[in-house]
């Protein structure tokens, strides 16, 4: 499964670990908020509604941040903007440690979200343009595992800090540690080169500055909306399970807190595995087919999990399966979106399509809350999640296959109807051919 990694050049490996670390540290800083919320509810008297507003705010701001960072990356370079986004979300995580009210935290949390969305968008484009076409799906998809690693680090830090310090200080120390990702910027400045495809375009079209609305130009507009529909379905379904799974385990299955933690740990472990599964499938069977198969399997798994009368051991096993499939679909978006759009607007499209899907997908967990007033919680979860996965299948059927596509040859017109076979793509550049 990991043979592809040993075949990467030195430059490709450095870029891979820069993006993996950035995504993991991004996850660490972002999940710190979720881990600190119970303490802030107790200390500040923050309501659950206000806690929910914080979650919605970061998704909306991440969507905006992804688009802004993508536009800047198309104009000034992937590596430079990647460094800025890491510095940005680290700085505002640190500033959150000095807040004293819900209003202040909402400002720092929202501004942190700009960097969160921007880092993902720019990192996904940088790695997609750097890795050779034959293994791009596996390399970019496996970056999703960085999120699970970062989440795990945040949980470990939270456990250590809250067990040794008083709550009124512990959450501040936790946020202050969020400044550590800035150290990664120093390493990136020394070791990471600009993506070869982008560097070539910059040399040939130095004066070209695409409009911020270029992703909606006529030859590309349809692809943009289809890609947003794809990510909306992916994140809408995933957010349903991520948001409501703990409540389902407690309120419907009546599990104890200890057992809930164990079930969620199995789900997170599945998420780690799913990143590698998707990449292998995407490179082996194609991007569209992988999205369709995994989305259909998700619908079956979710329906079984929430609607069928299954035993607790089966629930445990299905938790791993759900985590694998959830991570699997999300992991495939980075490479696929990059392959759909031309280099001159690739980062802008990645930021908009990926993060707009996240923002719109946040509607689905809210729909579960509305429907659960009249339906059983499991039924509401199953209906909303399965409806989302139907959207994934629909969008994938409308979009082209891009496996093995040479990113230097993507044009606005080709995204609409051209399908390229991997064996028709020129051999990947050797490491010595990369710009120094």
Total strand count, please? 0
Determine the mean pLDDT. 82
Integer count of domains: 2
User: What's the shape?
Assistant: globular
- Major beta-sheet overview: none
Strand-pairing-aware structural class:
mainly alpha
**CATH class assignment of the largest domain:** Mainly Alpha
Q: In the CATH hierarchy, what is the superfamily of the largest domain? A: MFS general substrate transporter like domains
Task: Provide the gyration radius in Å.
Answer: 21 Å
Indicate the CATH topology of the largest domain.
Growth Hormone, Chain: A
* Poorly predicted ranges: 413-436
Q: Helix proportion of residues, in percent?
A: over 70%
Beta-strand residue percentage: under 5%
- Supply the CATH architecture of the largest domain: Up-down Bundle
Structure description:
The chain has 2 domains: 10-199, Growth Hormone, Chain: A (Up-down Bundle), CATH 1.20.1250.20; 212-423, Up-down Bundle (Growth Hormone, Chain: A), CATH 1.20.1250. The longest helix is centred in the first third of the chain and has 35 residues, at 10-44. The protein is globular, with a radius of gyration of 21 Å. Helices cover 77% and strands 0% of the residues. With 436 residues, the protein is an all-alpha fold. Helix 5 (102-130) crosses helix 15 (333-340) and helix 11 (218-252) crosses helix 17.
């Amino acid at each position: 499964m990991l043979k592809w990694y040993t075949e990467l050049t030195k430059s490709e490996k450095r870029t891979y670990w820069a993006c993996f670390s950035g995504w993991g540290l991004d996850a660490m800083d972002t999940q710190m908020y979720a881990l600190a919320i119970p303490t802030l509810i107790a200390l500040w008297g923050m309501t659950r509604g206000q806690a929910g507003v914080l979650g919605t705010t970061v998704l909306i701001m991440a969507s905006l941040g992804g688009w802004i960072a993508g536009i800047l990356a198309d104009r000034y370079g992937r590596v430079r903007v990647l460094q800025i986004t890491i510095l940005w979300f680290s700085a505002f995580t640190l500033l959150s440690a000095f807040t004293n009210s819900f209003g202040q935290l909402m400002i720092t949390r929202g501004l942190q979200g700009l960097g969160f969305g921007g880092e993902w968008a720019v990192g996904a484009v940088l790695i997609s343009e750097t890795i050779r076409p034959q293994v791009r799906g596996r390399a970019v998809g496996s970056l999703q595992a960085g999120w699970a690693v970062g989440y795990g680090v945040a949980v470990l830090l939270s456990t250590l800090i809250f067990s040794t310090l008083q709550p009124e200080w512990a959450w501040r120390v936790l946020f202050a540690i969020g400044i550590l990702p800035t150290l990664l910027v120093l390493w990136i400045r020394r070791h990471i080169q600009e993506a070869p495809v982008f560097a070539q375009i910059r040399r040939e079209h130095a004066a070209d500055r695409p409009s911020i609305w270029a992703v909606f130009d006529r030859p590309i507009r349809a692809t943009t909306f289809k890609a947003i529909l794809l990510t909306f379905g992916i994140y809408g379904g995933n957010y349903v399970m991520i948001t409501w799974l703990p409540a389902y385990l407690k309120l419907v299955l009546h599990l104890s807190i200890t057992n809930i933690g164990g079930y969620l740990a199995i789900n997170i472990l599945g998420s780690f595995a799913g990143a590698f599964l998707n990449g292998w499938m995407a490179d082996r069977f194609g991007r569209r087919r992988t999205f369709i198969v995994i989305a259909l399997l998700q619908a079956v798994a979710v329906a079984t999990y929430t609607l069928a009368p299954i035993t607790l051991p089966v629930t445990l096993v299905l938790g791993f399966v759900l985590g694998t499939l959830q991570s699997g679909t999300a992991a495939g978006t980075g490479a696929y979106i990059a392959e759909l759009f031309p280099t001159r607007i690739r980062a802008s499209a990645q930021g908009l399509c990926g993060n707009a899907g996240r923002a719109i997908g946040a509607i689905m967990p809210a729909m579960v809350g509305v429907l659960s007033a009249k339906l059983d919680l499991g039924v509401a979860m199953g209906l909303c999640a399965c409806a989302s996965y139907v959207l994934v299948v629909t969008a994938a059927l409308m979009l082209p296959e891009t496996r093995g596509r040479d990113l230097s040859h993507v044009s606005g017109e080709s995204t609409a109807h051209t399908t390229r076979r991997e064996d028709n793509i020129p051999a990947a550049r050797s490491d010595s051919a990369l710009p120094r």
